[in-house]
Amino acid sequence: MSNTIRALLEPCPPDTGELDRRLSGRRRRFGFVPGGAAHRFPVMAALVPVATSRGGEVAYPGDPMCLYAALTLTIQRSATAPDALLAREPSLDDVLPDWGHYPDDDYRRAEHGYRTTLIADNPTTDGHVFDPRVWDDPAREQFVAELIALRPRVVLLSAVSAGHRYALEMAALAKTHSPGCVVVIGGRHADETVRYQRASHTLDLSWSSTVAVIGDGRSERVIDFVVAGDGAPGLDLLLQAVSLVLPADAEECVDTAAVLDALPLVAGAQPDLTGAFTVVGILPDGYTAVPVQGRRLSSAELPSPYEAFSVRARFGIFTRADSSALGSRTAHMLTLDACPFKCTFCSESIQVSQRPTRFAVTETEHAAERLGQMMDWGAEAAFFDDPVFWGGNWRAINNFCRDFEALRAARGDERPFEWGAQLTVDVVLNRAKSDEVAEGLDRMARAGCSYIYIGIESMAQRVMAHVGKNLLRRNPETWVSKVREALDTIRSHGIRVGSSVLFGLDGENRETIQETIEEIGRLIDDKLLIMASPNILTYHPGTAITAQHGQDRLDYHSRKDNRPPFTYFEEAYPEVISKLLTEDDIWYIHEAAAKRWGSVRNSAAESLTEAGA
Question: With CB atoms 3.0 to 4.6 Å apart as the test, which of 74, 164, 487, 607 could cross-link to 528 if both were Cys?
């Protein structure tokens, strides 16, 4: 196998001579003349689903906002490029992916729920995403119909680890029904399994990475490129390189090696090379990795992920707008991409994540303006998907709430709007900043926050001792008492609380499972929780607990239709869940939690209220 890592691409003077030669050659290849029209080639993006049936299981939609965010720059480049005449001198924008046009306000406000029309029939940027949410025969047939109708030159797949097996199947269908297309995969699975080590100039590949799976023959070579790291600048740069070498004949395959050679030329032509990411090209005899280290981007510099897409989700926890039995139309938002804490099980921990783009704590006004923009686009509620809202920085939380209140007051905006966010027990119980915490919770409530989600994980002291979450340990203060105090503090400010509970951590056995289910039940009895979500520990590449449990070979590539009791939990597949739990344990968790927690336990039906992103 010929596996290579090219030199790190950093901001540098462009090789204008070679680039000009390539651009001129492309004009001749396409028969362009000055004054002619630019060429746009069809492209499709797809959110790879995780679920395999339409009923009886908890639906985990993957990470739609990861895909939306990754598409922002390439869509902006295409959608804002002039459709008029070519410049006299050849340009990188002579050939562009065709993302369509931005949706207008009427479309944004009217469109909601699942996408039901063929991409080829919807010329908006919103119409260029295939988003089935479930991978079954009807979804497969629709995907094939999309491919045949559009004949995309590039297919972009975004997958979490649990959806990777279906991404490989979708890639194979793309290669069959749109011959010659380039298939690119990114998303959280790529971030978790492909890591460039700058200090040693080496590439770390997990056994479950797309590159390794294809390299050792567990899958056919149906993927051409993997993008890991900052998705938006990475994908934009890659598509510019594809455009530079694109054959004029729509049936002719794009040469992967030629794209890799074009990347340095395109990077050198960037007036401001941004982002930290790695592009891996998968070749017949191995792979070539191209690491890129540009200027770090903040979220404020990127377009809103919703600029090109409709707000489609409905979250049953939000009902003030009273627009649907499924709950208010809910936008998703991030203030940071990596959690600042180091829980052993979490794939969003700063130890695992390689997605550093985020709002700075000084950009709260911009974040408030973006939230106001989402309201104008039809959002009736919002949920901040950050592992910890503003990283647990109470000054930033206070400033954001103040800025959002001021924005609505200046606009005279009295529309019903509510939002929620995620915090941790220790962030709420920050004794050194108790006054700031109290002010922050008050301001959150006044600014419309009606719901806070907290990861409780376990109520067994012997389990929490190993997690790396219970940071502020004070004797004789127990985790159970801290959880109760944190929930009571939040409730005293008029904000409801929901929680996630995680089974299968170190120290777990049937006794600790019973202890956790009973203690959570007591919190429900005392009206401290309005929702409790039971989850099974799932091993993710790169997390500390995955290494500690010796799970270095995770099967995220074999095609499987899941089955009960695993389907009652997000992401749970038999081969990738905690080795400390038996199938009998999982049945027990499902049945005992349903009995003790009653309707407060999230159900499969409730999880399906989220119809989109």
Answer: 487
